[in-house]
Amino acid sequence: MSDNILGRIGNLVRANVNALIDGAEDPQKMLDQLVRDYTGSIEEAEQAVAQTIGNLRLAEDDASTAQAGVAEWGGKALAASKKADELRAAGNTAEADRFDGLAKVALKRQIGFEDQAKSLATQIASQTELTNRLKDGLNGMREKREELVQKRNELVARAKMADAQAKVQASLKSINATDPTSEVSRFEDKIRRDEAQVRGMQEVAASTLDAQFDNLEDISADADVEARLATLKSGGTPAAS
């Protein structure tokens, strides 16, 4: 009977575990559900053990009642037998036979309670052994639950650590894939081009000023030539500049 009770619960637990593992997506949720299911199984086992202990106590109560019956009807048989002996000694044979008959009835009742007590004693011994095995099994399940809770806490912590490490690795991979220094180099190249363009514009501006000054020198030279030409025409001698 104990194998049937705890065996059914064990099969239920294994079935739940297999179903949870097969459909597991979130380890923490799976482990929490496993603890809840196992706790529920322990509660079922506790009810089964409590019922078995209750049956044992009822059998013990019945055995006590039977033992009391044995003593009671034994006493009645003894009292009736003594009364019969007294009546027979007094010569009242008919009344003595009646009391002997009552003694026999009491003895039959006593035998019936003795048989009941013997049967109950066998039942109580078997029920006591069963109850002890069930209690041991229940205590074992409670210890397993404590181990399960501890293992759950350990695995959840490991799962969180693994998830954090995975996120770090993903971040590192993302950083390596988009190296920010390459973007900085692009900005540096753009700035160098802008700086070169500025220098070019400065050179263009400078060349324009030189050209303007050259034009001024040409104008000055032409004026000198015109002045000398005028001197020659007037009969004079051009002065050296």
SSE layout and pairings?
Elements: H1 2-22, H2 27-89, H3 93-177, H4 180-233
Helix pairs in contact: 1-2, 2-3
Structure characterization notes:
With 241 residues, this protein is mostly helical. The chain has two domains: 2-178, Helix Hairpins (Orthogonal Bundle), CATH 1.10.287; 183-241. It has helices at residues 2-22, 27-89, 93-177, 180-233. Helix 2 runs antiparallel to helix 3. The longest helix has 85 residues, at 93-177. The chain is rod-shaped.
CATH architecture of the largest domain: Orthogonal Bundle
* Count of strand segments: 0
Count every helix, treating DSSP H or I runs of 4 or more residues as helices.
Answer: 4
What class would the helix/strand composition place it in? mainly alpha
Helix content estimate:
over 70%
Shape: rod-shaped
Based on CA atoms alone, the radius of gyration comes out at 59 Å
Q: Kindly, what is the distance between the CA atoms of the first and last residues, rounded to a whole number of angstroms?
A: 140 Å
Order of helices and strands: HHHH
What CATH first level of the largest domain would be assigned?
A: Mainly Alpha
* Average predicted local confidence, pLDDT: 81
Question: How many distinct domains?
Answer: 2
- By CATH, the topology of the largest domain is Helix Hairpins
Low-pLDDT segments, ≥5 res = none
Largest sheet entry: none
Strand content: under 5%
